[in-house]
Amino acid sequence: MHTSPLLLLPAAFNVSAAAAVYKAVCKRSNQVVVLKSYQLSAICELYQHQIFREVALHASLKHEHVVQLSGAFQVNLHW
């Protein structure tokens, strides 16, 4: 059984039909992190492309006033 390395806190910062932003705590480091989740099936191809560009851009940013991107991944769920 796989367990998540993150502990999601109860309330989401922002939720829409296609995305949600959560505050979470890393179970290993006890560091507070932000988790942004997209429902790609609810987003048109153009916006999906923009999301992938946003992730690439965010990964390259290094500034004291920008939250550091720790990782990005895509999970394909087939129900």
Give a description of the structure.
This protein is of the alpha+beta class and 79 residues long. It is 20% helix and 32% strand. The chain has one helix and three strands. Strands 1-2-3 form a three-stranded antiparallel sheet, with no helix packed on it. Strand 2 and strand 3 form a beta hairpin. The protein is globular.
Write the layout of secondary structure elements.
Blueprint: E1 6-15, E2 19-26, E3 32-38, H1 45-60
Antiparallel strand pairs: 1-2, 2-3
Helix segment tally: 1
State the helicity in percent bands. Answer: 10-25%
Largest β sheet strand count, sense and barrel closure: 3 strands, antiparallel
Order of helices and strands: EEEH
The radius of gyration is 14 Å
User: What's the N-to-C terminus distance?
Assistant: 18 Å
* Unreliable runs: none
Note the beta-strand portion: 25-35%
What form results from the Cα inertia axes?
A: globular
Based on the model shown, name its key terms:
79 residues; alpha+beta; 3-stranded antiparallel sheet; 1 helix
Summarize this structure briefly.
It contains one helix and three strands. The protein has one helix spanning 45-60, and strands at 6-15, 19-26, 32-38.
